[in-house]
Write a structure and sequence with these properties.
GO terms for molecular function: polysaccharide binding; protein serine/threonine kinase activity. It is built from three helices and 16 strands. With 262 residues, it is an alpha+beta fold. The chain has a domain of 94 residues. The two termini are 24 Å apart.
Length: 262
């Protein structure tokens, strides 16, 4: 073997071992980085599939990111910000309400309430109310004008979704409510909207229970698109952390945007 070839092999081996050590050290951080539970206002002790806004993306399921603003927990779903009123990880449900309507139902953003059907579904019965504005008519059955309420300088009318068809209105904003219908007094409308509605997340929690039961911490792998388990000892990523400590890591957690080339 020539001296140049030998020198190349030594350099390559050194670099490979260095990369492995660096990767292993980085792997261990996944376990430590995902050890915090979310706490804000009346919400506390919330873990995977949720994660805090300041935590790495791989600590939670995509889209289940909680933020804390002025001690108020919030979550953003399809471009709408909601106040999180309650989270029950046992039933996998949470109660949310549109943040823009918590102070005044007339000050809503011009965005429909739309759930991301990938992680969410409605968890209770509800009625969709249509806040309609820019309407070109004088009288219409079952339509209620909301007093002293306007959007973009237009009067605002209320109509349940079951009775909606083209009324010649410029637009409508859909908001789900529980326990309120058109026969009730408008004075209860704000309370009904601000009480929120329940949604259920559809993320499988069995893998996370197995992971936590083995001493691991749950996270999300963006390559396999599934829940993974971060462990304090090698292998740092596994189905569970029951693998004997000291084994060489078999897989590495994949961070969004990270590409490892050897």
């Amino acid at each position: 073997m020539g001296p140049m070839i030998f020198s190349f092999l030594v350099s390559f081996t050194t670099l490979s071992l260095s990369a492995l050590v660096t990767l292993s050290s980085s792997d261990e951080l996944f376990y430590h980085n995902c050890g915090n539970s979310f706490k804000c206002g009346s919400i506390a002790g919330v873990g995977y599939p949720f994660h805090g806004y300041e935590e790495p993306e791989y600590c939670g399921y995509p889209g289940l990111v909680l933020a804390c603003k002025n001690n108020i927990p919030t979550i953003r779903i399809v471009n709408v910000e909601y106040r999180v009123l309650d989270i029950d990880q046992t039933t996998k449900t949470m109660r949310i309400a549109r943040e823009d309507m918590m102070g005044d139902v007339c000050k809503l953003d011009l965005v429909n309430t739309t759930l991301d059907n990938s992680p969410f579904e409605f968890a209770s019965s509800y009625t969709n109310l249509n806040f309609m504005y820019g309407c070109h008519f004088s009288v219409f059955p079952n339509l209620i004008q909301i007093p002293s309420c306007n959007i973009s300088g237009n009067e605002v009318f209320l109509l349940p979704e079951t009775g909606f068809f083209n009324l010649g209105c410029e637009s409508k904003i859909t908001v789900p409510v529980e326990g309120w219908d058109m026969a009730m007094n408008l004075s209860n409308l704000g309370q009904a909207i601000q009480s929120g509605f329940k949604v259920r997340w559809k993320v499988d929690s069995e893998k996370c229970r197995d992971c936590a039961g083995s001493g691991g911490r749950c996270g999300y792998d963006f390559v396999t698109n599934r829940t993974t388990c971060y462990c304090p000892n090698p292998p740092y990523t596994a189905e569970t952390c029951s693998t004997a400590a000291g084994a060489l890591p078999t897989t590495a957690p994949t961070v969004p945007g990270m590409l490892l080339c050897l």
